[in-house]
Every structure is written in C-alpha cells, then in structure tokens.
Amino acid sequence: MLNDDNASDGVYQSDSQSASDRAARSSIFSVPSPIKWLFNSVPLITYGANELPLRVPRRNDQNALYIFTTQHGATRGDPSFNPSCLRWQAYLKFCHIEHTTVVSNNHASPSGALPFLLPSVAKGTDRAVPVPSSKLQRWVAQNTANVVDEAYDLRYDAYLSLIDHRIRRAWLYTLYLTSNFHTIVVPLYVDPSSTNPLVRMAIAHELRSAAETELLKHSVVIDAELIYQQAEEALIALESVLGNSEWFFGARAPRLFDAAIFAYTHLLLDEKLGNGWAEVRMSRIVRKHGRLVHHRNAILDMYF
Amino acid sequence: MVLELHIWGPAFGLPSIDPECTATVAYLKHCLPEEQWILIADHDPSVSPNREFPALLHNSTWIAGFHTITRYLRQQLYRDIDARLSSQQRADSIAFSTLLSHSALPLLSLSLYTSFQNYYHITRPAFTSILPWHANYSVPPARREVAKAVTQHFGFSGLDIDDVHESTLAGGNTSISGSYESAKAVAGIPTGNGTNSRPNVLPLGFNKSIKKILNKPEYAARFRLDALTKECLQPLDDLLGEKSYLLTDGAKGPSSLDCLAFGYLSLMLYPDFPQAWLREGFDKYPRLQDYVHRMRDELVGGNTVVADVMALQHSTSPESHNLNLPWHPRVPEHPIGVAQNVATSILSALPLTSHFARPSIIPGIDVPETSTDAMRANTPSSPLLTPFLALSTILLAFVSSISYLSLNRDPRSEDDYVFFSNTEAARRNRAQSFGEAGGFMAALGNQMRVNSGLVGDQGREQERVGGAPVVEVDVEVREKPGL
Lengths: 304, 483
Description:
The complex is a heterodimer of chains A (304) and B (483).
Chain A: H1 2-15, H2 19-26, H3 33-41, E1 63-67, H4 71-76, H5 83-94, E2 99-103, E3 116-118, E4 131-132, H6 136-143, H7 156-176, H8 180-190, H9 197-216, E5 222-223, H10 224-242, H11 256-269, H12 281-287, H13 290-303
Parallel strand pairs in A: 1-2
Antiparallel strand pairs in A: 1-3, 3-4
Chain B: E1 3-7, H1 19-31, E2 37-41, E3 55-58, E4 61-64, H2 66-76, H3 87-114, H4 116-130, H5 135-151, H6 162-169, H7 176-186, H8 210-214, H9 217-240, H10 256-269, H11 277-282, H12 286-300, H13 306-311, E5 327-328, H14 335-349, H15 354-357, E6 361-362, H16 387-407, H17 424-427, H18 435-451, H19 457-462
Helix pairs in contact in B: 1-10, 3-4, 3-5, 3-9, 3-10, 5-18, 10-12, 14-16
C-alpha cells in the first residue's frame, strides 16, 4: 500500500513538474496519462518517401506531351489515335516545339482530359506546371519565337465549327456505335486499361454510353444517315474553302486549323488504326475529297 | 400533291415557338407557291421520324428537321433557293449554319427553358395557348428537360433558380439583369441603358470591393452569358456587313442561311422575358436587329397573330381568316388516339419504362457509292398501330398511374399536389423521388380532382393563367450536382 503510494507519487512528480501543469491535466483537452504513456513507449516513425517507379521520366529538360498513344508509338513519336490529342501534337510540330510523347490516359490529367503538356524546367527551379489543352495555344505563343500567326478570318470560327460539330459527331458515331468499336476502340482504349474482363466490359459499356449521350444532346434520336450526310456536306465545304492553296485560309505554313482537320482526316484514312476499320463508310467519304487527302498526306510527310 | 408542314404552334408573333420550325416555314414560303403547301400547328411529334417538329408530309413520306427538309426539296422536287449561290457561298452557308445552330441553340435553351422565371412567366403560357390540354402536362416539361441537358455543361446554377422563383413570389425583383444593373449603379459604373431602371434591391455595404461584388455567382453568370451572346452574334454581324442578306445582296434574294438565322434570332428578339439578358445582349447589334425585323416582313409576311391561327381549329372555312401563311386546321384527333398519346407520354416519363419506350438510334443503311442520294422512305408507326397494342398501352399507363397515386397518398398534404406555393413541404414531396414522372403524375392527379369536382381554391387558382386549365408542374426540385 505504501509502496504503491510512493510509486504513484513518483510517477506523478516525474510527469508534472509544476502546479500549472497539474491544472492543465484536469482540463478535458489534455491527454489522459495512460494514453500518453502508451504513445511515449510506441514512438511514431515517419518513413522516407518511396522511390519513384522506374518508368517515370527522369529527364525534365524536355517538354512532355501526355497523349493517348501506344508504348511503341510514344518512343517513335507516332501520331496519337485520339483526334483531340493529335490536333495539339500536330500543332506543336507545326510550331517546331521539341517534345516527347508520353503514354497516358484521362485519369492522369489535371483537367480530366488529355492532352496536357508538362513543360521542361531548368535545373534548380520548381516543378513544372502542367498546361491543359485549352491553354496550350497561349503557352505556345508565350514560349516560342516562331509561333504560327493565327490571322483573323471572318469565316475561321464558322469552318472550325464544322470540324468540331459535324465531323466530330460522325467520328463519334462511326467509332463508338458501329462495328468499328470492336476493331478500334477495344484494342486501343479498352484493352490497355485493364486485364480483367469484367473491368474491360464495364469500360467498354461506359465509353459507348458516353458517346451515345453526347450524340443525343443535339437530337432526340441518333440518325446515322443524317450524321453521315452532314459530315459529307462539311467536308465538301472544307474542301471548297481550302481551294487550291496548300494550307487553309491561304496561310504560308500550317496552323491550328490545319491541325484540327488533320486530326480527323488522318485517323479516318489510316487503315492500320487499331485492327483496321470494320465500317468504312466514313473513311470512304473522306477519300472522295482528293484535296483533303492531299492536305493530310502533305502534313504526314512533312511533320511525322 | 400538297405538302403538309407540321410545326409547333405560333408564339410571340412568330410562326412557331421553335427556331427550326420558324426557319422551315420561312424556307417553304420562299421556295414553294402558296397553293402547293399547307401549314399545320401540331402537337404530337410521334408521327415524325426523329420525334421532333418540323416534319414535312409528302406522298405519305415524312421528312423531319430543317436540313433534311431543304435537302429533300432540293433533290426530290428540284426546289432550291440556294441555287443562285456560288460554290464558295454554299460552303459558307453550310459553315455558318453549323456555327449558328450550335451557338444559338444553347442561348435559346437557357433563355426560354432553363431560366425558371422566363419559363414560368413566358414560355409555358405560350405553350398553353397552342397545345391541347393533355399535351400541356408532357410537352413543355419534356422540352425543358432537354434544354437543361443541353445547357448543363455551362454550369449556370444562377439561372435555373427556384430561389428566384420563391423570391419573385415574395415580391422581390431579383432578376439577374436587374440586380446586375443595380450593382453597377451602386459601384458607380454608368449603366448601359438608362431606360432599365430597376429598383435597387441589393443591400450592399459601402466597403465591399467591386471585385467581391462582381465575383458573386449572378454577376459571373451574367458576364459569361454576355460573352456567349457575343460569340453567337458577332460572326453573323460581321458576315452581314452592309449587305441586305447574310450571303447575298440586293435582288438575289435570301438564302437558306437567312431562313435559319431568322428562326434563331427572332426568338432572341421578340419574346419579352423577365430575364432579358439575351435581348439586352442583342441590343448591341442594331444592324442585326434591323435585319431580323426586315426578314420577318420578307420571309414570313410580318406578325403572326396566335389567336387567329388557333381560332382556325374551330372554324369551318379557313379562307375567311386573313393570314399571311397557308395555315390549315389540324385533323381532329380520335379519342382513342388522344388516350394513347396521354398513355405513351406517361409511360415515357416513368423512370423504368422510358428506357424501353424510346429506341434512340437509327442505324445507317450503308449503300456503297452515292448512298446519299437514296432518301429513306420513312414510314413511321401509325398512332393506332393495332387496337390491341393501343388498348394494352392505355391499360398499362392507367394501372401504373393509379398505383403511383395510391402509393403517394399522404393524408396530411393533399394540397401538395398543387405546386403553386412551391413551399419546402412541396419540395420534399414524395412525388419528387419519381423525377419528371412524379411531377407529371401529380399534375394528372390534380387534374382528376379538378374534373371530379373535388377542387377547392386550387382549381380557381389554376384558371388564373390564360383561361386554359394550367397546372403548375414543379419538376425543378432535384438538386442537380452538375449544375
């Protein structure tokens, strides 16, 4: 009994030196002594950060464009198989900006959509801030001397809307809602994401329904005939505005508009895309327009 | 061989409440002689192959949509008002019509449907005067849902506002433009138009920085709306220049692009909305406004009086009316047809059945080479497919609505079926768990009570809007995370 008292007294004295500490102990915010003892005997250790995986690019002295592509294609700088990635990839090439391409997917992007660019940084400075595609044009204008001037043309926006709406809708339809889904989307987008068949099924279903929702935004029903007709009209109009000049709107060098149309014409004319086109109607429509095919071949030869 | 053009009925002094319908009317008036076509204000788009008006009936073939109709007239009847255009002008016409419909449609959707004040005070009453009683429960809410889906990605939470609705009922005037103007006045910025002097409703402190004020959601929304309006109108204004039409000048006459532009721009200019941001944005383009006024006289023959057109339905001799367009009365519906319409609209509004009721993909028929010349003969299903199918649909809809109503009976809140008061209690009503269908059912339930003489004050309150039995269907209660 006495020993016990002494022992508790000793603990008491060693634990708290002054009267003010004793007062603090009684407040409800203080740590109860058994828990404090437990934490003292089990010290908290902070482990060092893990090593970065080996596949992470160590060199950041080069601009890295994160796009949908294959591992093999990334090392060779092949054109992306995604139109919006290919548009910016081609634009960077037009502006002579050196960059490497990196295999990626939408989950990696800060904006939720590819492409994005991780600019190169000089040694000793902070980490690079990723540039999403919506700000890429401004970034290019700020960071390079040989920027391609975008001369204002009254009709620029109107013709760009043909690409962004009519041709994009036809692209979405022909890629996701026809048999091309199994020969192109599945090997390029679905299979690399996972090896689990259930996950693959879920991703495939998600992609298809997303495309369907997007197309249903503009009409109550998805009328394939109408979509193809409108895309064909758009291509006729685009070919007519290209005329006999080499680049759109009479420019001396290809610009963003050329990149935008190239992104679709190249992929539609690429017979080796995925496992090949199963539904070739849209490709056939593009092939009918000789000057657009020539435009695409010229870009492919000069820049890729 | 007379062509029948079926459209949504007239509104705001225009031939139709829908931009593409107005555009199609203008196109047909310009390209066909008066005796070769008739115009019908219809309300049941299920006859149309794409389930939307405008729809053209020619020799039992239905063709739907502005672009498809102009194409059909060009290829089958050799009527083309764009024939005089050069190939470059044709290309421009295609490009600008795409730009126009993709920039103007979201604006009109926001202005006519998404904005609750505008929808509540202007758009829905306009529909009431052109639709039969039963279509009022399904058509305007369904169109509003579509419009909200189209405009969802803008994230204008400040527009689709039940809060504004409530504060309006409480007597405050807090439209976006009103509070915007008053905020500018408070901040010492000269307001754009002196005529728009709305009461100062914002209790602003003097030490609030202007940046703080302008960062508030309603002003941020207003800035974005103005930017969108400019994005839509500036290219057209530039294209118009000093010409008399968008593409051509003088004696060449209008083109199909003029018809389409009139369809969209007129709906921005003529309706008198409480939230008038679209029209205020339009005021910056006086040249374009003159053009729209001129086009109304030239393309559709001036003002369309809604009452005169709707009076046709009840008169026997269509020639006795003095109308600018070849309006004809609609063929009266068979009662079974009406019942089936009601039944299908109930079924398509229910969460589960709607999925099966609307097959939405029409696959293309890939005919190798020159496949585009082959116009598909659309033979839509007749409204009375087989008596068996009709009866079973009606029965199914009736059973499901009865079961819904019995499920939803709540002795405490009988009155919540009328949503005029839009109170918190009404918001939490179990009808909402059924989404759009819930609102629809609730309205139908109320209509049943009205018909069976059980109504109290609510019945009289319904008569307040425009004489026709309008039931306020509040479908705006779900919090949309995306908005």
